[in-house]
Amino acid sequence: MIVGLPMEAQVRPVTPDDLPALTTFLHTNALLLQGQEVLQEELLKESLSSGKLTLEADTWLVTNKEGKMLGYTWFELLKDWVVIPSIYQALELSDQSVGLYLQSCLEQRLLELLPEGIQGTFLAYVMGEKPVQRDFLAQSGYTRSITFSQMEIEFREPPQAPIWPATITVRQFDPDKDLQATYRADEESAEDKGYHLPLSLADWRYRVRLPLADPTLCFLAYDGDEIAGIALNYVKDEQVGVIDHLGVRRAWRRQGLGMALLRHSFQAFYQRGLRKAVLNVDADSLTHADKLYKRAGMQIIDQYHIYKKVLEETPLS
Questions:
Q1: How many CB atoms sit inside 10 A of residue 25's CB?
Q2: What is the H or E stretch that residue 218 is in?
Q3: What pLDDT band is residue 286 in, cutting at 50, 70 and 90?
Q4: Do residues 273 and 84 lie in contact, with contact meaning Cβ atoms separated by under 8 Å?
Q5: What range does the domain containing 175 cover?
Q6: Of 127, 241, 292, 316, whose CB has the highest number of CB atoms within 10 Å?
């Protein structure tokens, strides 16, 4: 059901002529929900011309009678009927009615596309404690699904050397030989994550595109000819390395392999001249990965929360 617009507000699709002013609006107004933030005009053009959406059906621009922008969102459907919305609202507005209207437009659009009996899911990301965003999500019917901790460690001295289980050897990822096996190992090691959605090889390859761009920072722990664990890392900037994926397959857990892969990654960063490592971890990890990282000297510096709202198209009675 579409929520009503505030009095004297009106809505229309975006047109190509709106893009310069819309880019400015996105820079300077409240982001109630952040999906894929678009900050530059060229990126906005690319998003709107990607073929995944049509301006007429999938964009909503709310203005006042004089044409001043009050709110904006767009609809982009991801795999498995998932939508991660971005909703912007003018800062001067006294309530969140424009944002609530735009959320309802997105929901109606998803319901139009959903096959009967299939669920669609809205996911929203909130960094830290943001009462305005939390209030908006509560009014929109979202519930908090999972919390991630951002952790880091600073290297004031050379990191401690890893201690490998007796049967384990480690080597760098070889993109010509290891792609399929690494994909399978990463997917298996992620099965115990409560939020994990299975990925195709193509989707996984896109998900880990940053670490795979530099195989010298991607490490595979082998037991014989089987991958027991992986660490896929990349350089964020001249000081910071990112541990993007670290996983150990079930049969090799509780042997110290996760800690060894973590410390091996720390050493690789330090040898590159990096002086900090960061990662994100489920704050309620079923495998207690957060406790492993704390034992290695990492500290929580921030948290972000994922909120969820599930919709289902119901048959007409």
A1: 18
A2: strand 218-223
A3: confident
A4: no
A5: 151-303
A6: 241
Write out the two tokens for 180: 């399929």
Q: What is the tens place of the pLDDT at every residue in 39-66?
A: 456 656 666 666 667 889 999 999 999 9
Query: Alpha carbon 164 to chain centroid distance?
Result: 31
Beta bridge partners of 305: 126, 147
Structure tokens at 61: 């621009």
What is the total count of domains within the chain? 2
- 230 within some domain: yes
In a domain, 309, yes or no: no
Under 8 Å between Cβ of 90 and 70: yes
Query: For the domain that residue 155 is a member of, what is the CATH number?
Result: 3.40.630.30
The answer to the question of residue 313 being in a domain is: no
- Same domain (yes/no): 159, 293: yes
Residue 159 sits in the same domain as residue 201: yes
Closest C-alpha to 72, from 82, 62, 58, 85 = 62
Beta strand pairing call for 10-12 and 59-63: antiparallel
Q: How far from chain centre, in Å, is Cα 291? A: 22
- Grade residue 284 by pLDDT with cuts at 50, 70 and 90: confident
Q: Are 88 and 32 in contact (CB under 8 A)?
A: yes
Model pTM score:
0.71
Does the residue 312 lie in any domain?
Answer: no
Pick from 265, 246, 247: nearest CA to 162: 265
Q: Are residues 20 and 136 in the same domain?
A: yes
Whether residue 132 is found in the same domain as residue 178: no
pLDDT at residue 38 in the model: 47
